[in-house]
């Protein structure tokens, strides 16, 4: 089969690789119908994630159809249309038993496209299938469902939930890429007073406004001026959705005493933690890898039309055009790309 293989920093190739096979009784083999590219994949290609070995098939977000299951899989059967979670869960270790699947010590956690071959391929082996896949209702189409593999639960769990957004809060979101936009949608579930978004790209600011941002700002100086003029002592919650030192430091600077900073971005460089200005402000700073414990709830809300998602998919390709898709996604400033979607040749594009 064909797959997108990481070939070391700065290098990737669409090439023939062996078909995946069942190696554990809890495995499933899934035909990939829809798959997308994450900003984390770009970090891997830059060499920011050294734990990814050259030769690994990239990708951790996909929707597909089960083709084969191991004898230990009880909840899925060939023919089931499924969402593949970006996090694998053994379901048994101390972390999985408390819903912290991202910290799984039983062989799970972030495995796909990281420590084992991932989803940017014609087929993928999914470990711990019963705990790491979700059957899709017909009300949720593939294009929407694939956002539930990573983007939506990440923005909700690591951003909104960790930031403890509550009614009446002023929420600052730095970065209006897919994570930032999904954070707008999920933050609005908690009735904040206002959502303020900072992003230098005009197209992203416009999209943020369409999907619920009350204020959009261009840069750090604009954010500082707005906070000074419109709050008494800073924002209640600051969500970092970029992954560079400057944006984290801006969030820590603009949060009020007793406020919360929720870091979502994947950082490849050290950021300054200015404890000399934070130590007496009772600021809570959280980090995290998504657990995907919220995926069933978010999926149910989408199916019931109780959660409205931004139209994040801006570009569509065939799976064999994945190299072009990567170029488009990586050059988002010029292309306007948010999420790029690749459709498998055998996809039936299930859903209503």
Considering the chains and any ligands shown, give keywords for the structure.
alpha/beta; 7-stranded mixed sheet; 23% strand; globular; 352 residues; 6-stranded parallel sheet
Your description of this structure?
The chain has helices at 39-46, 129-132, 142-145, 151-161, 178-187, 202-210, 220-230, 245-254, 275-278, 295-303, 322-330, 332-335, and strands at residues 2-6, 12-16, 28-36, 62-69, 81-84, 123-126, 133-135, 170-174, 194-198, 215-217, 235-240, 255-263, 284-286, 313-318, 339-343. With 352 residues, the protein is of the alpha/beta class. It contains 12 helices and 15 strands. The two termini are 29 Å apart. Strands 3, 4, 5, 6, 7, 14 and 15 form a 7-stranded mixed β-sheet that branches. Helix 4 (151-161) crosses helix 5.
Percent in strands: 15-25%
The global form is: globular
Ends apart, CA distance between termini: 29 Å
Structural class: alpha/beta
Number of distinct helices: 12
Q: Would you report the number of β strands? A: 15
Estimate percent helicity. Answer: 25-40%
| SSE series | EEEHEEEHEHHEHEHEHEHEHEHEHHE
User: Strand count, sense and closure of the main sheet?
Assistant: 7 strands, mixed
Which stretches are low in confidence, meaning pLDDT under 50 for 5 or more residues running? none
**What is the residue-averaged pLDDT?**
95
From the alpha carbons, calculate the radius of gyration and give it in angstroms.
20 Å
